[in-house]
Amino acid sequence: MYFKNVNRIEFLNLIFLAAISIFAISIFFLNFDTPWKHFSDQTQSFLHGRLDANPLDFDKHDYVIKDGKYYWPEGPFPSVLLLPFQFLFGSNFQQGIMQLILIVILLLSLFKLARIKEFNFPDSLYLTAAFLMGSPVVGLIVDPKSWFFAQVVTVTTLTLLLLELETKRRLLLIGILEAALIATRPTSGFIILALVVLLYIKKEPLQRKINRVIPFLIPLFISLVALMWFNYARFGNLVDNGYLKNDVGGFIDPLRSLGLFSLQHIPTNFYYYFLASVEPITSNISVHLKFPYIKYSEWGLSLLFVAPFFLYSVRSLKKTTGYLKSLWLVVVVTLFVQLSYYAPGWVQFGPRYTADFMPILYLLTLYALNRPKLTGFQKILITVSSLFNVYLLTTHILLQG
Helix, strand, coil: what percent of the chain each, to 5? Predict the structure, then answer.
């Protein structure tokens, strides 16, 4: 048994990591009954034959208002995912319940990926904890409000897709998962580039490649057609999803006026993605700090602060396989698109849009590390990083009162 051979320091480290996990779970249940449940409300509209949604009484933020009706502009798949559950159990089946189910699926998938890459049982748990608490994903999984819920759907779906890539590579299933990504957050769908590279480098006749790709393309085609119909039915335009005209509020609208996507946004986004640090909490005595001493701004912390463990992924660049190169291509393309987007994300813990490629970074990290065991330093880094993140999220709740 592992625990019979573990040394005292590592045992204390495991206990500490378990305690941090309990705090993270507590934050989730504090946020469980979120009032920002746009996808749940949209699901109810779907069940009643409508495409518009009843707006929140207290907040009209992010809706598209057309002909006196309110439309939710984000991809509809999270609402579709809720459909069978709300059909059976009614509107009481909220986003928080679905998010809890997704977190369990995500946890098991991350753990299985680590085991497939031949890490031992306890170190696979460490690696799973690194992703869930030592990355920007922690700010998403502890809060089921609509924006984060959509990203939890994305992260879970992409992780399942990567798990399929690492195992059976059934193209029909991969196509279904890719279709779900496109219908949730299109920027997470660049994983298709890796699939194209894999098919290209595979040594088999062209006709066989074409036959193999058809099952992948069918669900993707259905998803794209459904999205275009969804756009046209709401806004009279096949490619208009509402992102150019939704009510984003005073902080964000001036940024969008520079262009939905523009190279002008890269310096700002680069700062918040990679350089933004914590802010001090001072007393009324000059620069004297008071508890909880530091906080994060609503624009979030940099990826380097939130997810230092995943710098290990860079080691995988030494490997020369076309598969790993294609995964890095997906990360670079996704990141470039996000950096050129008009905002880095708002009311967030870390750069949450990076969740669109965090599962890929997780897999690249697994390839980069020495197996089957993590080093003592790597385990401590995971624990400290998780503690730092959960501490800031916990104290953020305290500061909000």
Answer: 65, 5, 30
- Per residue in 304-343, pLDDT (tens digit) is 999 999 999 999 999 888 999 999 999 999 999 999 999 9
Q: What is the pLDDT of residue 61?
A: 83
The Cα 6–Cα 70 span in angstroms is 57
| Distance between CA atoms of residues 159 and 289, nearest Å | 41
* Cβ pair 234, 66 in contact under 8 A: yes
Q: Do residues 265 and 340 touch, judged by C-beta distance below 8 A?
A: yes
Residue 46 burial by Cβ neighbours in a 10 Å radius (0-12, 13-18, 19+): middle
Note if the bond before 292 is cis, omega within 30 degrees: yes
Contact residues for 215 (Cβ-Cβ < 8 A; gap 6+) = 171, 172, 175
Q: How many CB atoms lie within 10 A of CB 287?
A: 7
| Predicted TM-score (pTM) of this structure | 0.95
Is residue 149 within 8 A of residue 141, CB to CB? The reply is no
* pLDDT confidence of residue 242: 94
User: What are the b/e assignments for 8-42, b being 16+ CB within 10 Å?
Assistant: eebeebbeebeebbebbeebbeebbebebbbbbbb
* Residues paired with residue 90 on neighbouring β-strands, in sequence order: none
- Contact residues for 120 (Cβ-Cβ < 8 A; gap 6+): 2, 372, 373
Angle (CA) 62-177-126 rounded to 5° is 90
Question: Within the chain, how many helices (H) and strands (E) appear?
Answer: 17, 4
What is the per-residue pLDDT for 4?
A: 54
pLDDT (mean) for 126-143: 97
Name beta bridge partners: 282: 289
Q: What is the DSSP letter of 249?
A: -
**Tokens 């928080």 -> residue:** 96
Q: Nearest Cα to 71, choosing from 224, 244, 217, 199?
A: 244
The yes-or-no verdict on residue 59 having pLDDT over 90 is no
CA-nearest of 21, 12, 25, 26 to 130 is: 21
CB of 96 closer than 8 Å to CB of 32:
yes
pLDDT tier, 273 (very low <50, low <70, confident <90, very high otherwise): very high
pLDDT of residue 65: 92
199, 209 Cβ separation under 8 angstroms: yes
Identify which of 360, 359, 338, 357 has the alpha carbon closest to the alpha carbon of residue 270: 338
